[in-house]
Amino acid sequence: MTPLKLQISFENVFKKFGDREVIRDISCDIQHGQVLVVAGPNGSGKSTFLRIAAGLLKPDRGEVHISLNDIRFDPQTYRTQLGYLSPDLTFYNELSAVENLLFFSSLRGIRMQHDDLASILEMVGLRGRGRDPVSAYSTGMVQRLKFAFAVLHHPPLLLLDEPTSYLDESGYRMAERIVKSYKQNGIVMIATNDPKEKEWGDLTLTLG
Amino acid sequence: MGRSNAYTGVDMVAQPKSSQQNGATLPIIHQSLLILRKDILLELRNRAALQAILLFSITTLIVVGFSAGGGANLPPDTLASLLWIILFFSAFSGLSHVFIKEEESNTAIALRLTSEANAVLWGKLLFNTLLTFVIIMIISPLYFILLNAPIIQPGKLALSLLTGGIGLSVSATIIAVIIARSHGKPALYGAIGFPILLPMLFIAVDATRLTFQTYSNINVLNRDILGLASFDVLMIVTAGLLFPYVWESE
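Structure tokens for the assembled complex are given below, as produced in the milestone run.
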């Protein structure tokens, strides 16, 4: 089996909202096996940068390329293959965690079995709570569910915006394990101001 | 709309043996049906759209029926107009919900990350069309009973309601996504929808009127139904072309 080699490159990426320039001509390359930490003060564009990498926003200027074994994709094309977690990501409150995960994995073409779901929920610390509606979850539990959503399809590119928000100590350790695991087999990008999360990075991009 | 994806079949981290991960995009029709199924499940659990629609439509129906004195001596054009007024406002009170709720609750982000834009459109469109047909099937019989409306040509009446209903649901769907993605006020929904739907409503009222008459011009009726069907095709094509841009807009 051909080993996977992932690379993501940003070339003079520029983004503004109205008159406010949020991302100003950022260029960087992240190689396979690296964790990029995107840091900066509030409003400096960390989340915007990750959304551009995820293909949820388009830059006003510049280009973003994702290269997988030398085959190039733009983020919009690759979007369904990457893993993404952010504060504004939400799920269907009327559905249970299992129903949400089954729905989104089915959309990605992944057939999840009971054991797979149990395994994912156990990994993120939601064992035994999979059948509860998301409306009954605490914010910390929702954050754990976001991790399950981000990794259930084993993406080579993982984008995490404030990953340990609302997490307790065990949740923090879970997040750290996931970052270290996924770093070995792809790329992880983290937008954060948390000093402990910053230590996970191999590279740091400071905005603002 | 094919895309290459070199990720197919690559084992990244240890996976449970029973999972199947192909990395390839699920066909749009399958994604659409999954989204339809999800929306039906959500609607059965919270009944938000259905309750809004039924509350409006049944209340209006009863008030109209009572005011019209059981429909006695109402001319066919009045009967037809009243029916389509009730159907139009009933549909518009609930069909926007399908997109506005996704944006307001931010679940649109997860949808954008996991599905093709056109799959979202067709899934939502199928849901809204189904909801419209449910409304028509509940409201129309009650209307005919309450107002003593004569059904002279039931086949053509059913056809006008069907084609008109599709026109309503497609238009409502594309307008809903425009309002939702532009974070516009829901009040604009009716303001934008009304001029778009006005031509269709004129034709639908005319076709329905003719089905209430014993001696109606069959050519005019057929023309009206064809006009409704043409409007449906036009709106479906417009939705298909416009939706990906609106869905991906910032």
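Residues 19 and 181 of chain B are 35 Å apart (CA to CA). Residues 1-23 of chain B have pLDDT under 50 and may be disordered. Further analysis is deferred to the final report.
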